[in-house]
């Protein structure tokens, strides 16, 4: 069974995660047959490992991790691979893979341009 993890940085202010919660709801409404969980690098729960554990318990054997970051900064270049490797070591029966940061996708960049245009 395939699953998805929407992976964000995390913040001290709990309100910061509200768009992530909405994103999870939107994903679930539009893709009801695919499991989805949120995970955060720091300061918020669940952690990446906790999200992988939850999806594993629900029967996932293939998990795509989508970093909901604007770019591939130090966290994604340095910290994320270590976390991903630790999860793969702990859950060798699950195929874990990751996309580039969503903010590096041309479609996302164009959506931001269109957002700005609508507000001018």
Automatic annotation (TrEMBL):
Q: Which Pfam families match?
A: CbiX
Lyase as a keyword of this entry, yes or no, is: yes
Give a yes or no for keyword Iron in this entry. no
A single MF term (Gene Ontology): metal ion binding
Q: Which domain of life is it from?
A: Bacteria
* UniProt KW keywords: Lyase, Metal-binding
Protein name according to UniProt: Cobalamin biosynthesis protein CbiX
């Amino acid at each position: 069974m395939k699953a998805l993890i929407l992976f964000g940085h995390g913040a001290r202010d709990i309100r910061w995660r509200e768009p992530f919660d909405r994103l999870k709801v939107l994903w679930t409404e539009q893709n009801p047959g695919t499991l989805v969980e949120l995970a955060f690098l720091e300061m918020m729960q669940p952690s990446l490992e906790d999200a992988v554990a939850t999806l594993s318990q629900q029967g996932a054997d293939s998990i795509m991790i989508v970093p909901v970051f604007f770019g591939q900064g130090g966290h994604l270049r340095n910290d994320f691979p270590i976390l991903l490797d630790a999860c793969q070591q702990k859950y060798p029966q699950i195929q874990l893979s990751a996309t580039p940061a969503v903010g590096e996708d041309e479609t996302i960049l164009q959506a931001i341009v269109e957002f700005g245009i609508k507000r001018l």
